[in-house]
Amino acid sequence: MTETGFRAPNVCNLVGITYRQLDYWARTDLITPSIQDARGSGSQRLYSFTDVIQLKVIKRLLDAGMSLKKIRQAMEILREQLRTSQPLRDVTLLSDGQTIFAAHSPDEVVDVFRKGQGVFGIAVGPVQDELEGEIHELYPEIESLRTEIAATEAGST
């Protein structure tokens, strides 16, 4: 079964780039079409849906002020990570303008430029929930006090 591809004019419209940018990125291997590359004069490149997603991410990183050199490095590393882990839709890219982080889940954030070195992160909500549960379990009288205070506040309004 052959995958239907997106031709260059359609890709340019979807991504919001010029044909010249797309051509340059393909010729310099920033992103090459995975369905069909150009094979001489008159042939057409055909990009997959995943290629178009990557191109749109590249465009957004450029719009956010990242240099093409850093984007190129990040995309190479990110593609390598994606070959061995999760699909693109499960990755969130974060940037502070200097580096790019890939978040595969709330618990896993990776510094893309440091070849997948983990970044320490804490989701505060789950910590709060865990602490409230532990307090309730260890000190049930605090929960009854909290219930009394809430009832008193509700009666005074």
Characteristics:
3 domains; two-stranded antiparallel ribbon; 6 strands; Multidrug-efflux Transporter Regulator, Chain: A, Domain 2; alpha+beta; 157 residues; single chain; elongated
Please give a structural write-up.
With about 160 residues, the chain is an alpha+beta fold. It folds into 3 domains: about 60 residues, Multidrug-efflux Transporter Regulator, Chain: A, Domain 2 (Orthogonal Bundle); about 60 residues, no CATH class; about 35 residues. Helix content is about 50%, strand content about 15%. Strands 3-4-5-6 form a 4-stranded antiparallel beta sheet, with no helix packed on it. β3 and β4 form a beta hairpin. The chain starts with 5 loop residues before the first strand and ends with a helix. The model has no long low-confidence stretch (mean pLDDT about 75).
Strand content: 5-15%
Ranges where pLDDT stays below 50 over 5 or more residues in a row are none
Would you identify the CATH architecture of the largest domain? Orthogonal Bundle
Q: From the alpha carbons, calculate the radius of gyration and give it in angstroms.
A: 24 Å
Number of domains: 3
Q: How many separate helices? A: 6
Mean pLDDT: 76
Summarize the structure.
With 157 residues, the chain is an alpha+beta fold.
Topology:
Elements: E1 6-7, H1 8-15, H2 19-27, E2 46-47, H3 49-63, H4 68-84, E3 92-95, E4 100-105, E5 108-111, E6 117-119, H5 124-138, H6 140-156
Antiparallel strand pairs: 1-2, 3-4, 4-5, 5-6
